[in-house]
Specification:
single chain, 122 residues, alpha+beta, 5-stranded antiparallel β-sheet, 2 helices, 5 strands, 51% helix, 20% strand, elongated
Length: 122
Amino acid sequence: MAEREFTVDEANALLPTIVESLGRIRTARQVVLDGGERIRRNAPTNGGGREGKEYWEALATLRRDVESLNAQGIILRDPESGLIDFPSRREDRQVFLCWQLGEERVAFWHGPEGGFSGRRPI
């Protein structure tokens, strides 16, 4: 488990920033997935051009935003669905507060072994 533990209120307060970060992560991820092979093919002959620049900028964005979440103790489980876990404590045991992009607030939790399928309402 991570060192930091979040309360529901702390996790909810971070959601607007997380939503922005997830938007950048998802966009950058798509650029990388769409352009990666094409850039690798073209890079030896012309350095990748505009597409190469977009690709490397997308990689930098991914790294920056994912590392920022990590540094805050937030766990990005799935960038595409926007699945996030916040380490927490419930009834004196370690758990994860669970949130997914599109949900209004953090309203679920699960144990370390439960994952998304083991989500329970708070």
